[in-house]
Design a protein that fits this description.
This protein has one helix and four strands; from the N terminus they run H-E-E-E-E. By secondary structure, the chain is α+β, with helices and mostly antiparallel strands.
Length: 60
């Protein structure tokens, strides 16, 4: 069985883990109602996505 001969240093471990962080959610603004919406998502307020109304908005 392969076993490491020496311990990896903290800096080497940190370099490997540097890309493992959680990235921020991309936010765009709806062109219809100007509310903040995650990208590639139907707007929950007006149901607008890619230039057309996809879903009828629910009345509160």
């Amino acid at each position: 069985m392969a076993v490491p001969k020496r311990k990896h240093s903290n800096s080497r471990t940190g370099k490997r883990r540097s890309h493992d962080r959680v990235k921020k959610k991309q936010i765009a603004y709806c062109p219809q109602c100007s509310s903040a919406v995650p990208t590639h998502t139907v707007c929950p307020k007006c149901g607008y996505y890619q230039g057309r109304t996809v879903v009828e908005p629910q009345e509160a």
